[in-house]
Amino acid sequence: MKDIIEIQKVIIPEIFTLLEKRYEILRNISTLQPIGRRALSNRLHIGERIVRGEVEFFSRQGLITINASGMTITSAGESVIEGLKDYIYDVRGIKDLEVKLSNKLNIKKAIIVPGNVDIDDYVMNDISKTTSNLITDIVKENDIIGVTGGNTMAAVADGVNQQSKDKNITVVAARGGLGKRVESQANTIAAKLANKLNGNYQMLHASDTLSEELLLKMIEDPEISKIIEMIKKVNLLIFGIGRADKMAKRRELPVEVVDKLEKSKAVAEAFGFYFNREGVIVHEMQTIGIQFNDFLKIPTAIGVAGGTGKAEAILAVSKLKKDMILVTDEGATREILEKY
């Protein structure tokens, strides 16, 4: 297909611009439905007249329906989106980018989806679905899977297809609770993922922002101790990659710690550790759950993050574990390859 695409680019280059534009419009309708023309126009920064023409075309082709509440995608439209995905991958040279990124980061494997999650919400759906497919492909009988919290991990769990075969899998929350949203807590994600994989789950009933004194007391609890021991046996870890500044805000760190992170040029946070771009630890927090040394020993680790804003964080975390698998997007990839 690659040779054919190169020929098409020479003979009819305008077809790719139109194809990508229509793909982006369909994906946004699918993600944001029901949505009106004006809202879609503002979202895509495309003139409303142009959007109207494309919408009329999609409607004639039976790819969308239009009613008083807005536009919605049809099953035929969803099929077109799915069918175009691999073609868009080839047009944008995604496979070549994956090789370049894995070589740049010196990691085991990089898997990239088109687009930039900082610009288009639907890209997160592709990231989560790609990660979910990867999980179901590599999970084995008797695996102990660790998951961290966060919006990205919540999306990954949502994207996993329901499995019927019992592989005696256990999913464990690898971090304590953080923030107020139940949906993005590691415990909630562990339970959802376990149900999707037809497995069991273990929750870590503790906050991830405990003081050192409380942390030591919590570890003495038999139930907490049992979970911590299980976390040390995790052989497949799926984790999100956080920006240092965003995580510091979520944790409501003291001003002096935030100042320290800024002065030391921290760009990433993982497992309670803050790292600079070179992957050097610049600040450590006492947390409950998976520890940095545990992370280094895990056989298979899948890091998930997208968007240009996560580029430096991805760069830093990739230096920590060379045998990790990264699932990211085109936005973060091009930012890393072009700027770092």
Automatic annotation (TrEMBL):
<keyword id="KW-0805">Transcription regulation</keyword>
<dbReference type="InterPro" id="IPR007324">
    <property type="entry name" value="Sugar-bd_dom_put"/>
</dbReference>
<comment type="similarity">
    <text>Belongs to the SorC transcriptional regulatory family.</text>
</comment>
<dbReference type="Pfam" id="PF04198">
    <property type="entry name" value="Sugar-bind"/>
</dbReference>
<dbReference type="Pfam" id="PF21715">
    <property type="entry name" value="CggR_N"/>
</dbReference>
<keyword id="KW-0238">DNA-binding</keyword>
<dbReference type="InterPro" id="IPR037171">
    <property type="entry name" value="NagB/RpiA_transferase-like"/>
</dbReference>
<dbReference type="GO" id="GO:0030246">
    <property type="term" value="F:carbohydrate binding"/>
</dbReference>
<feature type="domain" description="CggR N-terminal DNA binding">
    <location>
        <begin position="19"/>
        <end position="87"/>
    </location>
</feature>
<protein>
    <submittedName>
        <fullName>Sugar-binding transcriptional regulator</fullName>
    </submittedName>
</protein>
<dbReference type="InterPro" id="IPR051054">
    <property type="entry name" value="SorC_transcr_regulators"/>
</dbReference>
<feature type="domain" description="Sugar-binding">
    <location>
        <begin position="92"/>
        <end position="338"/>
    </location>
</feature>
<keyword id="KW-0804">Transcription</keyword>
<dbReference type="InterPro" id="IPR036388">
    <property type="entry name" value="WH-like_DNA-bd_sf"/>
</dbReference>
<dbReference type="GO" id="GO:0003677">
    <property type="term" value="F:DNA binding"/>
</dbReference>
<dbReference type="InterPro" id="IPR048715">
    <property type="entry name" value="CggR_N"/>
</dbReference>
<dbReference type="InterPro" id="IPR036390">
    <property type="entry name" value="WH_DNA-bd_sf"/>
</dbReference>
